[in-house]
Amino acid sequence: MEVTQLSAPKETGWIEVVAGCMFSGKTEELIRRLRRAQIARQKVVIFKPRIDNRYSASQIVSHNTQSLESVVIDSAQEILELAKDAHVVGIDEAQFFDMSIIGVCDRLANDGKRVIVAGLDQDYRGVPFEPIPQLLAVAEYITKTLAICVVCGNPADRTQRKIANADRVVVGAADSYEARCRKCHYIPD
């Protein structure tokens, strides 16, 4: 759901979460919302975790190559100081932060900021990917994005890992992952 002027809270901040599987357009939607805030002449600051260096070291970049400059950080706590003067705070790939991101987002919203967070809601096994489920619980607005299953064409909400690696976090793109529906997703051995 797009937050419009008619539905936006007044004189308070809020949290918006865009969650879904890989290749579902999460970063694309985050960029769209942040660009609209920039057009409205709101002060926007965007953050990404240092671990996500797939397409750029200094920008958030969607799989379809849309991009915006961002601040690269190592921990969620850095956001509080760096976003002090912002009206709108964008955070991409939030699943790569620890659980402190929840308190950071809450504090920013309590300080009157619009906080827009994008991240994977499930890992490659189809298990909820913290801290996204907890962010969904405290968010005022939630958008679940779906991709297209590369096997059968159904709506996809799972991320299929194509490489042999049992680590929960393996940064990659189309070389390592693809979108799958519930029926076509499987957990690799």
Task: Tell me the layout of helices and strands.
Layout: E1 14-20, H1 26-39, E2 44-49, E3 59-61, E4 67-69, E5 71-73, H2 77-82, E6 88-91, H3 100-110, E7 114-120, H4 132-138, E8 141-145, E9 147-148, E10 155-156, E11 158-161, E12 177-180
Parallel strand pairs: 1-7, 1-8, 2-5, 2-6, 6-7
Antiparallel strand pairs: 3-4, 9-10, 11-12
Structure description:
The termini are far apart. The chain contains 4 helices and 12 strands; from the N terminus they run βαββββαβαβαβββββ. The chain has a domain at 14-145: Rossmann fold (3-Layer(aba) Sandwich). It has helices at 26-39, 77-82, 100-110, 132-138, and strands at 14-20, 44-49, 59-61, 67-69, 71-73, 88-91, 114-120, 141-145, 147-148, 155-156, 158-161, 177-180. The longest helix has 14 residues, at 26-39. β9 (147-148) and β10 form a beta hairpin. The protein is an alpha/beta fold.
Structural shape: globular
Tell me, rounded to a whole number, the average pLDDT: 91
CATH class of the domain at 14-145: Alpha Beta
How would you sum up the major sheet? 6 strands, parallel
Specify the helix fraction band.
10-25%
- Give the neighbour order of strands across the main sheet: 5-2-6-7-1-8
> Would you identify the regions where 5 or more consecutive residues have pLDDT less than 50?
none
Number of strands: 12
